[in-house]
Please model this.
Amino acid sequence: MADILKGLILSVLSEKCYNEYFNEYNFFDLPCFKATLSKGLGIGIILGSILVKVPQILKILGSKSAEGINIYGVYLELFAITANFAYSYVMNFPFSAWGEGTFLAIQTAIIAALVLHYGGAPVKATIFLATYVGLVSALVGGYTPKDVLWMMQAVNIPIILAAKSIQIITNYKNGSTGQLSAITCMLLFGGSIARIFTSVQETGDSIIILTYCVTTIANGALVMQLFWYWNVDKTAKNISKKKKKNT
Model:
């Protein structure tokens, strides 16, 4: 039992920090505190990522509409997520530093397929999913040179800006955030902030750190729009409900 418990603790703590805390009783070791906090945040982000885009998916399914969601923005976001986790996987970074990318990619791919499906192209949605699975297999299966993966990660910065900017501009033109989920946007914003810290601690990779800094700024802009258009969206829903009652 003690060995099992130690194994669980070592999934969060390094051997050095385990020794500092449980053998030396040194609970004020700053490097261990930062490392443990980073690992804990990373695990928390991964657990949260399993469901982070589910509210968005359910919102689309519930309304049977992807109105206000720009498919090109979704494509670019999916590219950025995929490039990030493929690069991190091949570089053997700790899973706690990038693991959420796997779940975010799956959910984002589903959102893209739903946008295509409810946009009147169900066949395209099926082809898209099959093509995406094949591309991911090529990226993480050792068929793609590391230099190419690094370049994909490097271009993530302008791609993330483009993806979020497309959605921000779409919201501005519509005067509404449409079917965007407030819960999803706020969770992504909080997660990207935490990822700046965990990336500094666990990877030290400047391109990864810069990517999350840009992601945080872009996600923050979307969250601001959600609050700005909050009353507009509520008014639109109330008008829609009244029209349905009158018909």
